[in-house]
Amino acid sequence: MRGYLAPQIHNDARGRLTVVEFADLPWVPKRAYFLSNSDVSLTRGSHAHKVLEQYFLSLQGDWVLRFFDGNSWTECELTGGGSGLLVRPGLWREISTDDPHGVLAVFASQPYSEPDYIRDFSEFIDWKNS
Ligand code: TYD
Q1: What are the strands, taking DSSP E only, across the chain?
Q2: Mutation test of ligand 1: which of 31, 35, 37, 44 has the most ligand atoms closer than 8 Å to its C-beta?
Q3: Which ligand 1 atom is nearest residue 117's CA?
Q4: Which of 81, 103, 104, 117 is 20 to 30 A from 20 via CA?
Q5: Each residue of 50-100: pLDDT tens digit?
Q6: What domains sit in the chain, N to C, each tagged with a CATH number?
Q7: How remote is the CA of residue 45 from the centroid of ligand 1, in Å?
Q8: What is the rounded CA–CA span in Å between residue 40 and residue 27?
């Protein structure tokens, strides 16, 4: 992990407005995607990225992100709307929520590239040890 990074949040009577100034990130995003409509009994992720850096931002609902660096697991909670986490490459991750209406935004440093993924855990361990 690089650590938590809060977005700008502007609340008023009309609701919440969440802002990500790309200049506040350590890299300029090339892509954004959004996780929603979750089956709360299932986990997403279960992969690692070799190069990709990401900024996870909870827009709705509580999300749990678990990371394995090859030695130990770290658990991060993104609670409610407007909680953000910068994630470095080389970490196995598992993502879940208990809110079927939860929305998690993900800003990514690179375009989608399947070769950047490691989707097999034992392959990830071998890659970390190599
Ligand atoms: P996947 O990476 O398996 O989801 P998760 O983030 O939960 O591990 O992606 C699901 C599908 O969406 C898979 O077929 C790849 C595709 N996909 C894209 O085409 N572009 C993207 O930017 C992303 C993140 C996924």
Answers
A1: 3-4, 8-12, 15-19, 31-35, 44-49, 54-60, 63-68, 73-78, 83-87, 92-97, 103-108, 117-118
A2: 44
A3: 2
A4: 117
A5: 999 999 999 999 999 999 999 999 999 999 888 999 999 999 999 999 999
A6: 3-129 (2.60.120.10)
A7: 9
A8: 31
